[in-house]
Amino acid sequence: MITDKPKKKSFVQGAIPAGFIADSIAKHQSKTTIGAHNIFLGQVRADVIDGKTVAAIEYSAYEEMAEQTFYEIREAAFAKFDLTCLHIYHSLGLVKTGEICLFVFVSAPRRKVTYEALEFLVEQIKEKVAIFGKEIMEDDSYIWKKNT
After folding, report:
1. Per-residue confidence (pLDDT) for residue 81, from 0 to 100
2. Is residue 53 packed enough to be buried (19+ CB in 10 Å), middle (13-18) or exposed (0-12)?
């Protein structure tokens, strides 16, 4: 099923604030055919790499291509799962450890489908979307992040 909704923008500058997440959830209270929501929040970890601790990740992307891939992933999810709606937001720019960099939100009439769809979406995003992360260490050195 191809939706006739306009393409949504997925990128936000900087960390995704808690208030943005709360507002997104609150906006769905009027949609009374929804029986379940599920969310995934990706948070920047303070990993230790070669004895250095990650302080932040600076995200970049070829935005036009990445937005097209987000769109294709959304469409595939709507075709595969009985979803009422879904939202994907990913940070660009600097995100400090402890801050949210990925917010995926799915809604459906039934609970089980939200779990399956959410796992599908997160794995597709990690595998297919050309987003690059430069892990910035506490000493200001950096390495390029590898998705796992």
Report:
1. 98
2. middle
